[in-house]
TrEMBL record:
Species name: Serendipita indica (strain DSM 11827) (Root endophyte fungus)
Lineage top rank: taxon: Eukaryota
Classification via Pfam families: FB_lectin (PF07367)
UniProt xrefs under InterPro entries: Cytolysin/lectin, Fruit_body_lectin_fun
Record protein name field: Lectin
């Protein structure tokens, strides 16, 4: 039974622009793309594909989408080195007993991770059509709400400190 996974990429923060630099397939499948939509066609269950994205800031991730035992699954790997490619990493999800092998068996309909290096950023995958043969997943790249709040508080604190120092300097003159 054939499967199709349509992946839509959403970038919610303008401080980095991610572009797809590699599309890979584990076996028996192909990718096609138009703009920020990528379509993985697979001849059956038991395979997957990955999108490797790189930002103009140097950040790199791999997002993996697949079907195992007739159910969808997904994963995201962040903080990649330039040598890490989808072609190199994708077979790791098919090594039983490894963390990546377990991810495939978990058959998640959504997954998110917040990276801290090289920048704090939240990445998430959510299958918005999670059952059947024509699946749809959203890959979202953006700020973590907690990171955003922490940065806002830090910015406000720094601004308040700056204003206090100006006030003290005026009094001392």
């Amino acid at each position: 039974m054939a499967y199709q996974i349509t992946v839509r990429v959403f970038q919610t923060n303008s401080n980095a622009f991610f572009r797809c630099v590699e599309q890979s397939v584990f076996s028996s499948g192909t990718w096609t793309s138009t703009s920020d939509t990528y379509v993985l066609n697979m001849t059956g269950s038991g395979t997957s594909g990955s999108l490797r994205l790189e930002a103009d800031t140097g950040e790199r991730i791999i997002a993996v989408f697949g079907v195992h035992n007739y159910k969808r699954w997904c994963d995201i790997v962040t903080a990649l080195t330039p040598a890490d490619s989808g072609t190199k990493l994708l077979p790791e999800w098919y090594v039983e007993g490894t963390d990546r092998g377990k991810v495939k068996w978990s058959q998640l309909a959504e997954y998110s991770v917040t990276s801290t290096a090289p920048r704090a950023r939240k990445y998430s995958i959510k299958y918005v059509v999670a059952d059947g043969n024509n699946l749809v997943a959203n890959l979202t790249i953006g700020w973590s709400v907690l990171i955003y709040l922490a940065l806002s508080i830090t910015h406000r604190f720094s601004r308040a400190t700056l204003e206090s120092n100006r006030f003290v300097n005026v009094i001392n003159k």
